[in-house]
Amino acid sequence: MKVAIMMAAVLVVTGCVQAEVVPGPDGQPAVLIDCSDSWSDGDCYREAAKHCPTGYELLPPPTVTSYTPRTFIFVRCTGAMKAKK
Fold it and tell me: In this structure, how many other beta carbons lie within 10 angstroms of the beta carbon of residue 68?
C-alpha cells in the first residue's frame, strides 16, 4: 500500500507532459508539447524551458489532425535547443 501511495505521489509531482521536436511553420525545428495529461499549465511551460533553456517563443498551433493532442503548446527555442541524451 505504501509503495502505491509513493508511486501516485511521484506521478502527481512530475505530471504527464510529453514533448516532441517537429517542423515548425517555416520548416525549422519546433517543440510540440502535449499538456493533456498535465495537472497544470505550469507543467507545460516547465517542459518548454527544459527543451529551450535560453528561452522560447510561442508559435501558432499547427493544423489540428486526429494525431494532434487537444491541449498543447507549440514553441520555438530562441537560442540553442537542448540536445537529447
Answer: 14
Contacts by 38-42, CB closer than 8 A, 24 or more apart: 38/71, 39/12, 39/15, 40/15
Residue 2 lies in a domain: no
Domain that holds residue 68: 16-77
Residue 21 falls within a domain, yes or no? yes
CA separation for the pair 36, 78 (Å, rounded) = 25
Any domain includes 39? yes
Predicted TM-score (pTM) of this structure:
0.68
Residue with cell 540536445: 83
Residue type, 37: D
- pLDDT digit of tens for each residue in the chain (85 aa)? 333 333 333 334 445 788 999 998 899 999 999 888 877 888 889 999 999 999 999 998 776 666 655 688 899 999 877 765 4
In a domain, 6, yes or no: no
